[in-house]
Amino acid sequence: MIIKKAKNLKLVSFSYLNQAISMALHLLQVKILTSFLTQNNYGGWNQVQVTINFIIVIFTLNLGHGFIRYASSYTKEFKEKTFFSVLTFQTALTFLIILIMFPFQSAIMVFIIQKHSVILYFLMSLTSILIISISNIQNFLLVSGKEIQMIRQNLIQVVSDVGFTVLGVLLKHDIVGALAGYATSKLFCFALFSWINKINYRKLSFSSEIIKTLLKFSLPLLSISIAYWVINSSNRYLINYFLGLDAVGMFSVANRFPMMLVIIFTLLSTIFLSNISRLFDNGNMERVSYWFSIILRIFFVVGTAGGAFLIAANRPLTLIVSNKNYLFNGLPLVYLFVSLGSLAFGGFQIISRLYDLEKKVYQNSFNWIFAMILNIILNVSLIPLLGIVGAAIATGATFVIGFILAIIKRPKQIDINVPWVKIIIVLSVSFISAYFYAFYNEAEMSILSGFFTAIIFAALSLSLSFILRIITIKELVLLIKN
Predict the structure, then answer these.
(1) Residue ranges per domain, the chain?
(2) Which residues contact residue 221 at a Cβ distance below 8 angstroms, ignoring those fewer than 6 apart?
(3) Which tens digits make up the pLDDT trace of 396-414?
(4) Which string of DSSP letters, residue by residue, matches 324-352?
(5) CA atoms of 414 and 285, how far apart (whole Å)
């Protein structure tokens, strides 16, 4: 048991060291790209990234989730056969659809970046196929119990992606340079990881029965993946349509930091939620209820403090990763609404685990589909009226309403003991006070002073949470011990 705990602690520590380094490198990449690319080109770069993500979400049919769900219990030989089957199926399907769409590539590229470009269509296609292949390798390591190796390779991939992308931009100051660098990185990583893990592609095999089995599990969950992409990314297309690529670039920078609040959920998920399935299967509902309740409380306490810091420090943060061209009058409002949405999204994700435990897949899918439709309606309505701020309001409103719906419709077998009124009080006081500070005073302060004041806002938010006893020191100590 002690050895297992030590391994888990090492895994968690390494995972979050990796995440911290990845965040720092991606922020560095944003700084360099916004320095060497025009706003128009940086907006185009983000459009390309969003489109690649869309290709991966749609064409992989969510088979990666099925692979992870089922292959962990397979024999080594059957794991390898499943890996090759999924890899072959996803690669062939993606290549076939890309080939079918080629006659329309000119219209597609005009829609994405407002200009014709065969080379960008080719680079996007190549990059998508390579990302799918690398993802399969990482999934294979995960089901084989090689989590540390997977995390190491993730870090190598991030370093490679940032390095090659920056090199491409330095050599050619446009989207083609950035994407050529990014594609080169993916090709390098695919070759390197295949070599490191001794993957013999001459043994490539395919089983339609394996794919059919995985699809039965994966396809019902595909709607959630699509909804997630729509809510988080599709507004870029509408911003581009109504406001242009320059606005896409500004929104992408402004959206980056507030959406990082979800990382708090990822940390809690890695440390605690992995134990909940075991407790649920053993019928220990009281402990499951305890874990869900305390995770939600900690998430909102820490997330609210983090959101108050981000809102108060919106201008210094934007200047650190970009330049004055990315500042605009509605920036504090964007940070406010996206931070609110990010918090609600984290809560949405935690509550979704209740649906997973009780196998309420279709109800969970309904919640996400409802949120997706609402997001599209809000974006179409608000972006023409309020511009970038409208996109932020749509994001915030979508996740808040989606979270409320998930709470109301949640399976009732597990009780949730969370003081929602107190959380709303702390959230309202923290975010509104941070917003008014940012709106009226921050432009007059230096970056250092702005950060110092933002830290005070975060500390006051935490203090208010402890005063109202949303979470106590005793509970935190017990949590750490467990």
Answers:
(1) 2-219, 234-481
(2) 62, 65, 361, 365
(3) 999 999 999 989 888 777 7
(4) GGG--TTHHHHHHHHHHHHHHHHHHHHHH
(5) 6
